[in-house]
Amino acid sequence: MHRKEDARFIRGHGNYVDDITLSGMLHGAVLRSPFAHAKITSIDTTSAEAHPKVRAVITGETLAGLGLAWMPTLSHDVQAVLATDKVRFQGQEVAFVIAEDRYSARDALELIDVDYEPLPPVVDARKALDADAPVIRDDLEGRTDNHIFDWESGDRERTDEVFAAADVVAEQDMLYPRVHPAPMETCGAIADMDPITGKLTVWTTTQAPHAHRTIYALVAGLPEHKIRVVSPDIGGGFGNKVGIYPGYVCAVVGSIVTGKPVKWVEDRSENLMSTSFARDYHMHGEIASTSDGKILGIRVRVLADHGAFNGTAQPTKFPAGFFGVFTGSYDIEAAHCSVTGVYTNKAPGGVAYACSFRITEAVYLVERMVDVLAYDLGMDPAELRMRNLLRPEQFPYHSKTGWEYDSGDYPRTLRLALEKAGYDELRSEQAQRRELNASGRSKDLMGIGVAFFTEAVGAGPRKHMDILGLGMADGAELRVHPTGKAVLRLSCQSQGQGHETTFAQIVAEELGISPDDIDVVHGDTDQTPFGLGTYGSRSTPVSGAATAVVARRVRERARIVASAMLEVNPVDLEWEKGRWFVKGDPEAGKSIQDIAMAAHSSLELPEGVEGHLDAACVYNPPNLTYPFGAYLCVVDVDAETGQVKVRRFVAVDDCGVRINPMIVEGQVHGGLADGVGMALMQVMAFDEDGNHLGGSFMDYLLPTSMECPSWELGETCTPSPHHPIGAKGIGESATVGSPAAVVNAVLDALKPYGVRHADMPLTPAAVWCAVQGSPLRT
Ligand code: MCN
Ligand code: CUM
């Protein structure tokens, strides 16, 4: 089925925040810090206020007067809305100008005079805990260092024992660099405080409208029914639109101060420099095995760079997200990891870019470590994986770090990927190529990279998972109108994933109503039930389950109505898609449309049965879902220029039952392109003063069709046993699994040069330096 929403998108009729214009609307712009770390000694806004088109200038001091200078982050920290004391990263919000038009607001920024006293910045996370490191968060009481948290998982002692007894131990330091999802649409908001009704409406780019509303309620002290958050069409979120940004809060305050609606939409550089980044994990991995390649244990130490405020959005009990699944897809005896989070003078964030709550980092780590081990053992990396993958009979599998993998048949999926790629032929082609290289007849290298991943998505069971105290369940409401058309209301919010299509398909499958007759309403807190929103590929696992459950409840209500219509006992009715009929008499039946009309009619219903045809549900998932996949990448590398070309990419994904195969493939295509981008091109770089070096698309590179091969997809289907329709999430799988496949492929190409590891991004310079055996200078 084609996507219902594309009819408006491909005609240019999407309705994004910046398309909305309200009567009398003013425009805001943010003044940002040029320094990574500096004391603010004074801010003079006189000239800006004198600008003929400026209506107001808001500073940290104005906000402090309202008790709004600081706001809570999603990780139990606070973040400056507008700086009052210091600036803590380049691009931090310092003042907000409200003017009659966007250009005047921007012009007036230049009229604001701020005196800064620069302070030494902490740029390298590895130096953040040094005794002489400047303390970034001196706003927090009693704070004498840049330490945020320590978190560990697994059994340290048991792991140490396993390592002590192992034949082989391989160690490797690796960095998953700071990257940014860079969605097509940047972030923005329009705030409209109605002075008569006291109702605040915020149109905003949010992946989690209900969570945002509750946070506004808590921060502003307004009751929730006086706040309406609307998330219209969104041009990509990728985790960038989970958090609340200072610009949103400034727009709200601006509307209160001026009595007019205020629009604030950031530009591309602001998006890249100040909004939620991803990764920035410095990892030290160790892997232990027998000499013939049975993996015994994995041990990891991580230093996590969280920037100037701990603004990552992770479930409360999981400060390092779901990094705990770093044991990957393998049957091992023991594992342990410890993660230390630190502050640095960089933008806050940390949940973004299809990360599945840090499973991107975990999968990259374990898949690189398996290749490092293969290198040391002189074993084929695909064979090493096959030897250690969990076996189908081990499911449900209880991992050594406490996760319950719901279902899987890993060897089948890996075998399929190897067959599709023609693995043996590729290896023989490579052997021939290496002969040519060795005899100096060619400098063209070829590499084959394999990665196998398992994700844990669909957060999550309320008793284990909450964000800022809000449990991670989601509501759904389904109403069938008298004519048999339906409306489904969801708490999650699509940013391009196609929910208006796929969620209609779930109802269609359960009730036999055409998906064209089912309207999916989302992204408006006044119109939808409460729930935590779309991220961590949770919509299908949680809201998708809620949708199947409400549809089934409606079906059961329909059965009672049908029994009254047919004057039979409900137990004597049988369901076939779209109708209830009398067992043994298929002719005597009523379609769901007939039943819907009857449910709204004067038909007498049994005692205690209400009329109409609707249902609601709050779905509290019993477990996460565990999608998985096997990826294989083939690259050609020019040893003389360091240029990498991705020749082929085979991706076999298993996300259980696929609701819409085309949408699933689209999700995978997008994620694979992300992986090529991260592996070869992307990094948010900083100089030693903390200047951001990637504030535009000239420096922060996005992959295009030129860098991507024609993806070769395959699938296996292992339904989730606890999900009502057996579906698992897919939205982040390819971003999680693909970087390791590409990096493994490049390093496989460089094997003859004795290169075992090199960090992303594997730019031509990085590859060339690795070949030369010289350190990369950035
Ligand atoms: N789907 C399906 N069958 C399945 C699983 C999913 O047909 N077995 C469909 C779903 O119904 C949905 C889509 O695939 O239409 C993605 O579903 P899901 O895996 O549940 O992920 P979410 O809908 O929760 O989307 C979130 C996920 C995340 S966290 C990031 S980051 C990301 C991603 O989606 N951001 C995206 N993919 C994106 N795609 C687009 N176009 N834009 C983004 O911002
Ligand atoms: Cu981690 S990016 Mo998605 O979960 O929105």
From TrEMBL:
All copies of domain Aldehyde oxidase/xanthine dehydrogenase a/b hammerhead, residue ranges: 11-120
Enzyme superclass (EC): oxidoreductase
Domain of life, source organism: Bacteria
- Entry's Pfam families? Ald_Xan_dh_C, MoCoBD_1, MoCoBD_2
Enzyme Commission no: 1.2.5.3
Note the SUPFAM superfamilies from the entry: CO dehydrogenase molybdoprotein N-domain-like, Molybdenum cofactor-binding domain
Q: Which SMART domains match?
A: Ald_Xan_dh_C
Q: Which UniProt keywords apply?
A: Molybdenum, Oxidoreductase
Q: Which GO terms describe its molecular function?
A: carbon-monoxide oxygenase activity
Q: What is the protein's name according to its record?
A: Aerobic carbon-monoxide dehydrogenase large subunit
User: Per the UniProt entry, what species is this protein from, by scientific name?
Assistant: Amycolatopsis pigmentata
